[in-house]
Amino acid sequence: MLMKISNLLKKVGKVIDKYIVMPTTKLVYKISNSFDRSSHKLENVLSKQTTLLLLSGVLAFILFVIVDQKILMLNTSSAEVFKDQKITVEYDEERFVITGIPETVDITLIGNKSDLYIAKQSSDHNVTVDLSDIKEPGTYEVEIEYEKGLPSIEYSVNPSEVTVVVYLKETKNQSLSYKVVNADHLENEVEISNVVLNTDSVVLRGADFQLEKVASVEAIIDVDKLTTTDPGKQVLEDIALVAYDKDGKIVDVEINTKSPVTAEVEITSTSRVVNLNFVPNNKVPFGKAISSYKFSQDTVVVYGPAEVLDELEKTGIDILVDVSKLTNNYSTTIEIPKPAGVKKMSINKVDVDVSITNSAEPINMTLKIDALNVPNGYTAGAASPDDAEVMVSITGAQNIINNLDPSNFQAYVDLSTIKNVKAGTHEVDIKIKPISTNARLTDYTAKKSTVKIILTKTS
């Protein structure tokens, strides 16, 4: 503050020097020059002690009048607006919840420039709403007050008055769950497999209407706050807690726990070795057949959630190869399709060699028909022995069809395609599915396209 006053006085001194001392000196100089012969007499007069005292007194009087009446330009009336000033609310926080008070207000200060300059340098603009006298819930009209530092400054607050509603603060017990955020920042090889919180419940405090909105409270597990993303366990402390409504919007309530919430986070690297399946796309030209194929690598290591990888371990990943134009041996490089849920694969492409030969004479094979997706409340059976099986004609390379048997194929009907489900006889399409690798290298055709199935309602 002393530095500010010193700077202000220096500015005032410069103004006095410019507008008073310099003009006075020039005037005296002109007067002295106008007296040609009597200049020495004037110098003698001005050099007398009484004359200097008189001049000093006049100048002091003029300076006093200027400062007292604020004649200088610093006296010019001006205004300064301080925007977005925070409000301090004084009330019984243990008993009440207050709504209706804005987060910030604008303050307009009016006064002379010197006072505004001092006021502007102050970082404290205390804006308060005093509700300390309120003892009961209800609706109140209250003033927003500003504690001005200089009495010479006028001020206005916008808004200056607000309507507040005071609610009693209630409590509610709520279960606690967790939510992982920024999981995409993890390396593809790892995932958060488990989170254990040190508590499973919290106490909410707020107005009744606020507590009724709360649908869930979640501990936010932020991946960016992990000390390491290496596989293993680590503890996150001072977990942020957030209350949400049924639409996922944040509800502003107090969330209390007996102690700060911590979370034990387990990071694992989940991977599986998965087979690559050669799947011919379209049919080879007439008279030709696939006698063999070879991948540069028969398996691939995949990373991702355990449930996704467990399923892939059973089914493998299908590599579709277009064989519609193959009449001779063929080699190519194919991109491995990335299954849904898989984060990373050890390789993204694979080389494949396909050997082509002449097709052998077709063979016939009789397959039992399975009924899949039987409607709830019903049993399914073939309408006749002939509807229980289907004959399939299979063509392919001799070395392939010589090693086939009915276990390499599945014949089935999908009963979920029945539009009007009711007890009785229904005609449905037959579908054939190759199960083994050799079976996928053949062409197969069912001798009939439909069978009749009887649905019987269970008791």
Characterise this structure.
With 459 residues, this protein is of the alpha+beta class. The protein folds into five domains: 2-74, no CATH class; 77-168, Beta Complex (RNA Polymerase Alpha Subunit, Chain A, domain 2), CATH 2.170.120; 172-268, RNA Polymerase Alpha Subunit, Chain A, domain 2 (Beta Complex); 271-358, RNA Polymerase Alpha Subunit, Chain A, domain 2 (Beta Complex), CATH 2.170.120.40; 363-457, RNA Polymerase Alpha Subunit, Chain A, domain 2. Helix content is 21%, strand content 44%. It is built from eight helices and 32 strands. The protein has helices at residues 2-34, 39-46, 49-69, 113-121, 208-213, 306-315, 398-401, 437-440; strands at 77-86, 88-90, 96-99, 104-112, 127-130, 138-143, 145-146, 154-158, 161-168, 170-181, 191-197, 201-206, 216-222, 232-236, 240-244, 254-256, 263-268, 271-281, 288-295, 299-303, 317-322, 330-335, 344-345, 349-358, 363-372, 378-382, 389-395, 409-414, 424-429, 431-434, 443-446, 450-457. A five-stranded mixed β-sheet has the order 15-13-10-12-16. It has a five-stranded mixed β-sheet with strand order 30-28-25-27-31. The chain has a four-stranded mixed β-sheet with strand order 21-18-20-23. The radius of gyration is 46 Å and the shape is elongated. Residues 70-75 have low confidence and may be disordered.
